[in-house]
């Protein structure tokens, strides 16, 4: 991680980046999104594809899966808030959701 990406973003920086991550909100200081799929297999397939990309950037989400729903929260614990890495991962995850 470069130092410029690995720092806590200011409220202004967070607001500026929110427009770039469709469907995400801020919940309890974290980037938050719930994605609903048609089936469990689709949800699990998304998580499997996401895991490969997550490992590449070494930035791991807080997430859970119940049947066809995946709940994701992103935060950079090491900086005590949101960093560019959270927004980078949000964009990657958005790109992995199948377009219907």
SSE order and pairing:
Elements: H1 11-18, E1 25-27, E2 30-36, H2 40-57, E3 62-66, E4 69-74, H3 84-96
Antiparallel strand pairs: 1-2, 2-4, 3-4
Helix pairs in contact: 2-3
Please provide a brief summary of the model.
With 100 residues, this protein is of the alpha+beta class.
List low-pLDDT spans: none
Percent helix, as a range, is 25-40%
What gap, in angstroms, lies between the N and C termini? 34 Å
- Strand tally: 4
Helix count equals: 3
Mean pLDDT, rounded to whole units? 92
N to C succession of SSEs? HEEHEEH
Strand content: 15-25%
Largest sheet: 4 strands, antiparallel
**Strand ordering within the main sheet:** 1-2-4-3
Structural class, please?
alpha+beta
Cα radius of gyration in angstroms: 13 Å
Overall, the morphology is globular
Question: Can you walk me through this structure?
Answer:
With 100 residues, the chain is an alpha+beta fold. It is built from three helices and four strands; from the N terminus they run αββαββα. The protein has a four-stranded antiparallel β-sheet with strand order 1-2-4-3, with helices on one face. Strand 3 (62-66) and strand 4 (69-74) form a beta hairpin. Helix 2 runs antiparallel to helix 3. The protein is globular. The mean pLDDT is 92.
List keywords for this structure.
100 residues; alpha+beta; 4-stranded antiparallel β-sheet
